[in-house]
Design goal:
By secondary structure, this protein is mainly beta. It has a single domain (about 5-150), classed as Immunoglobulin-like (Sandwich). About 5% of the residues lie in helices and about 40% in strands. The chain contains 1 helix and 14 strands. It has one helix at about 5-10; strands at about 10-15, 20, 30-35, 40-45, 60, 65, 85, 90-100, 110-115, 120, 120-125, 135-140, 140, 145-150. Strand 5 (about 60) and strand 6 form a beta hairpin. About 25% of the residues are buried. The model is unreliable at about 1-5 (pLDDT under 50).
Length: about 150
């Protein structure tokens, strides 16, 4: 059985958020990962919002200046089956993350948020889980922009 997939054609992400946020309040981003294929997939959640914010997985630029990540960095060993999420054929999974917990946002006219778009393992069958060797695979998606106003 060939377990290789063409991730650039079978997975896509989508980010969404409000157009405006109030400085000092939560900045919630919704991350959706879509399975565009006709097969079920198991995706390693590491380095994606599906596992929460455990590393520098977003690029954030506010008024032209990159905002540094201030959260924790997690080292990993070997994944377990629980490190993967199932996405049914033609289905999607979503999660919300609060960027204000790991980034300090200034008042600004435009903040742009981009997921760095890396998936470290995708399998077509749970029989292949967990996999010990991983190579980052770039997936495509959108960016979101918003303003941050004083409350």
């Amino acid at each position: 059985m060939n377990n290789e997939i063409s991730v650039d054609k079978e997975l896509r992400y989508h980010l969404s958020t409000s157009d405006k946020h109030v400085k000092g309040n939560s900045i919630i981003i919704t991350f959706t990962l879509e399975n565009l294929s006709n097969q079920d997939l198991w995706v390693l959640t590491w380095y994606t919002p599906l596992e929460g914010l455990k590393g520098e997985i977003f690029r954030i630029v506010c008024n032209g200046e990159e905002i540094p990540y201030e959260g924790r960095l997690v080292k990993r060993g070997i994944p377990t089956k629980d490190s993967y999420m199932y996405i049914g054929s033609r289905k999607s999974i979503s999660t919300e993350v609060d960027l204000s917990n790991t980034y300090t946002f200034p008042t600004c006219n435009e903040c742009i948020v981009e997921f760095k778009g890396m998936i470290y393992d995708v399998q077509k069958s749970h029989e292949f889980l967990p996999k010990n060797e991983h190579k980052p695979i770039k997936i495509i998606g959108n960016i979101v922009s918003f303003s941050i106003i004083n409350g």
